[in-house]
Amino acid sequence: MKTILSPTLRYASTLLLLILLAVACQHEMPMTNRLVDHQPPIFPDYTEVTIPPNIAPLRFLLADTCDVDKAAATFECGAERVTVWASDGRSIAIAPRAWKRLMKDAAGKVISVKVTARIAGEWVGYAPFNLYVATDSIDPYIVYGRTDPSRNVMGHTGLYSRCLEDFHERAVLTSDMTHGDRIGPATFSGGDAQRFFLPLSGALSCALLTDSDKIEKLNTHTIPGLPTPTHVAWHPSGRYMAFAVNRNARQDVRETASRIVIYDVVKHELFTSPQLFSDSSSVTYPAFSPDGETLYFCATSLMAYTRADSAKYHLCALAFNIHGGRRFGRKADTLYHSRPAPPPPPRKKSDKTPPRRPEVRPDGSAARPLPSPDGRYLLFTVADVGSNPADRPTSDVALFDIKHRNFLPVDTLCADNDSEIAYSWSNNGRWIVYTTRSIDGLYEYPVIAHLSADGRPSKPFLLPLKEANGYRRTMRSFTHPTFLTAPVPYRNYTLSRKARTLEGVDIQPLKAGK
């Protein structure tokens, strides 16, 4: 018996068939009218970057300078091929499932990306670009602060945890949960999400110290003669922490002469040494070596510091012993000594090549030393002057080979006339994260770069966001990004309640180092 469809049902079936055909056609790239020999102008710039095999999908948009109304991109790796059409005509947002298919066996291989865009009614095919997938994985989590660029604005600060393998982000603690208190950067012990030091400044004026299921509140304002600690560094044993303390009691001072003290987590005591606590020098940014036997720090003479426009901090190393006897070495070793820059060599008029960038600025000011997990390299920041590179528009990242005592080239990491600040190593020592203001000159954005076994950095890439134009909508800086091997296990209401209700532990008076 022949089935007769009603006109309404026939119309619906025809419409559904047309929709399915249209969707099916969109899985293929459009026919191009012309090809160009340059790569597409995309943001973020993911062209020719090296990425970890467990990173979230890289999503991007075509630059506003292109008169584009439609666009598509094809991602290809081996037998896997995925075509993505821009939902709004500009944004290329590959789906998580499609991205996982591409990345399943992509480690050590190359993903080719071809972008086609309709410009003024004409389909233009751009030269393809590559995504180089490393064999080294990245730590699956990262923690960062999100803050307004105006550091004096209250209520716009918070600590957030993000999974790097997807786009899941959650608030660890925000200022509206601490009655407007400013939340300082959290310092984690060796990438351990369960052990960190989190200072709060304002009405609470304390610090939270976590260790597994234990949360302790420290009364940092009771430290005799020493205001709130900053620039905290954990000893790998978890027994000690080093932090800088400002001599100036005002908490809003950005750059003040400082000293370094060591805090015994078990005894709640402070101790130090003449090299770290002196009336003749300003010492800051402590960092312990992975074996715990060396303390790195930045120092300048107090006489140089009084001339704020010319203070230069040197990078130093001091022996540290936790097994009894003398705790500190007798003399600090200077690894980076700021000196006047030599004049550039004469160049021939016929030489059109750009001058070679030095491995490290010779006359800079060192800050934020970060030893690699294997103890081989020392990543740090070099500003033009002072101890706060975030305030300097020309801060650069530098890399020191501790074994061979020489500096390595980092041209790919640094942009001219913009601020880059180093913050963290991955647990395997193959990835670094730092911030840059090179995107818009105002906000700090997190940038990730791969380092080879011999310390050669690849082209860095911006932390992928869920929306292709996410960085143009955030209107916040991402500060102090830190890699973690696991998510932060504490809920924000738990940390907030502990900060408000726990009875604080007083820190014992400072003792002289042995």
How is the topology of this model organized?
Layout: H1 7-25, E1 34-35, E2 42-43, E3 49-51, E4 60-62, E5 68-77, E6 80-85, E7 91-92, H2 96-103, E8 110-119, E9 122-125, E10 129-133, E11 141-147, E12 157-163, E13 169-174, E14 182-183, E15 187-189, E16 192-201, E17 206-211, E18 214-219, E19 229-234, E20 240-246, E21 258-264, E22 269-272, E23 281-288, E24 294-301, H3 302-305, E25 314-319, E26 333-336, E27 365-371, E28 377-383, E29 396-401, E30 406-408, E31 420-425, E32 431-436, E33 445-450, E34 461-462, H4 471-474, E35 477-484, H5 492-501, E36 505-506, E37 510-512
Parallel strand pairs: 1-9, 3-10, 18-36, 22-37
Antiparallel strand pairs: 2-4, 4-7, 5-6, 5-8, 8-9, 8-10, 11-12, 11-35, 12-13, 14-16, 15-16, 16-17, 17-18, 19-20, 20-21, 21-22, 23-24, 24-25, 25-26, 27-28, 28-29, 29-30, 31-32, 32-33, 33-34
Indicate the multimeric state. Answer: single chain
SS class: mainly beta
Instruction: Please state the overall shape, judged from the principal axes of the Cα atoms.
Output: globular
Portion of residues in beta strands equals: 35-45%
Helix content: under 10%
Span of the ends, CA to CA:
102 Å
Unreliable sequence segments: 17-26, 249-254
DSSP strand tally? 37
Largest sheet: 7 strands, mixed
Number of helices: 5
Taking all residues together, what is the mean pLDDT?
85
The whole-angstrom Rg is 26 Å
